[in-house]
Amino acid sequence: MPIWNRDWFRGKHPPTCTCVDCVNKRLGKNMSRVENSPVKNPVSSPPNSNLKKSPLFINKKTFTPLLSLLLIFLSTLIGVIIIATLHTNIPLWILLGFSLIFSVEKWFLYYTRKYKIIGYIYRTLLNCSLLASLGLLIWSGFKLFSHQSAQTPLIGSIILILELIFFIWICRVITKNSWRKPSMKLTVFSLIVLFLILAFAGVEPLSTYKDIVGDKIQSTFSSRNNNSGIINPTVVSTSVRTTDVDTTTTSQINISTQTTQTINLHTGVYKNYYLGLVDDPEGTLSGDGCYDDEGNFLILINNKDAVDPTYDQLVAFLRNDNTGQYPYTYTDRMLSSYYGTAESRVNLNRIKNIIDGITQPGNPCVCADFAERLHNNAEKAGIRCAYVSIKLTDAGHALCAFKTTDRGIVYIDVTGISNTYGPSSCDKIVHVQIGQEYIPTSLFPEPGWESTWDSMGTVTSIYLTWDGNWNN
Predict the structure, then answer these.
(1) What average pLDDT score do residues 279-304 get?
(2) In the chain, where the domains are located
(3) Which pLDDT belongs to residue 126?
């Protein structure tokens, strides 16, 4: 007999002893009594039944992760469906964040308390989620109330309400976990330090945001100095010294100044031109990247000295312009999501080279590209031009408008044809009015081809902009 058994029978362990050996001994004795006792109700509890060995029994430890994975999968699936329907990924991130945080709060909260490092990571994610939801709520509200949202007012309002509900819920979750570390103050401070490090290191788009803030601060202080009558000493010294410099040196200084000049990111001004983006009620429009090969936005290059032409001057310009000679090429390019402003995504170096004549824009593919190129060519020639976006019964379309001094508004459509078999010039004049058929007429008819084109549908809406918008 083992020593622990002998000691137990000799009475060295009292009957109420709670040591491991005594507890196991008593449990084993009680189990043997239960097994030897007769079954009182064989119908309700058969002697050979064992629930743990039943294939229908699911262990709770394995069932909990399955529930969380199912919730995350369903949330992601609903978000993807919303993206395909509304072309916005905001509900996907809200549903995904809700499913993750809810799973932790419902089924995995024990591990965040048992392991400190997991608790720290969880609280940091909660703080970042709160800050992100607050920023998203402010951004969506500004876009909605300033009528710059890419969605309809009803869909934009629903998304804003969804963001507000998520923000309130995440605030309640953080309140329940307020005892955790790190605190919200430490998280905000760390994010600010990280933002400054990445911005000054040149990481995009943080570097662009830093430049925009710097330009605004500099312009604010310069305007205050000008209003207070303070003269910049560098300007005085330059004006005095130029009297002693010969004309050759002065010309060299002017040339170097022009070569180093760049497009102002905040104002979009460069030399005698200023840029504009096409912001219709559905958002910032994009094309196939003829001018902007990075963000693929439609870029309007406006001339400060452009004037309204006569009808004959307009016809003479269109006769020499070759935009309508390019073929139409359909491309299903969807504008991808981006952070920050659309202006910060534009390739300004390429636009600058196009204005200076160093680089040529890409060939137009879709109707938006044709209207973009005609607008920029007309402005470069000193003719004021407008970009027009219309909605038809079955599709959308883009063209240009000119305000002639003798015939008023004239709509010009230079979109090419999808094959090379057709007239050499696709310059067309069209009467655009809501509720009427869109039927273009060739501006320069050619023998063998009808001058009247087929109807493209009924015009349902018209959006016209002369200069576009650049940072509002």
Answers:
(1) 82
(2) 1-35, 62-180, 263-465
(3) 93
